[in-house]
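Entry: CREG1 protein
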Amino acid sequence: MAGTLFLCAAALLLLLAAGGAIPPPEEAARMARFVLHNCDWGALATLSAQEGLWGHPFANIFSISDGPPGPFGGSGVPYLYLTDMEISVQDLEINSNASLTVSLAQTPYCKKHRYDPQNPLCAHIIFCGSIVKVNDSEAGLAKKALFSRHPEMESWPKDHNWFFAKFNITNIWVLDYFGGLKIVTPEEYYSVKP
């Protein structure tokens, strides 16, 4: 019962955040932080290491979190909970470079405004960088960020050898308005609050 209440409260916070005022288009770094913090999953693209697909782009959906739901709860760091059994993680073991796309299309915001997911006003962010396992000092932060949004993760099979990882951001592109992509540096991104 407590878990259900927590999920309902978290969903309500997400609805309020995503349905409320979003940063203006001239604040691209804030927009990037806002979108990441209000999204629970993203499309992670790797270069495939699988037989028959070697070197081809391969996108897969992953649950993500930069911190507990609610305003001011995000660190800006996309955390993931991974296992070596997963096909994209096997790709990352060969080449850790990846891109991660997150979109407000997964929140009520775009539907409320009747924005198609491809409409630039339905903001999406593309991060490029690499996936790295978090060290012991960061594992608690990653666990809190992920399990607060994805409580089911705690019950996933222990024999899958799950581990916490983060997306090390090197490049950021924001599409939140007409006129093309905006480039945000990691320094700009981490210096603002969503």
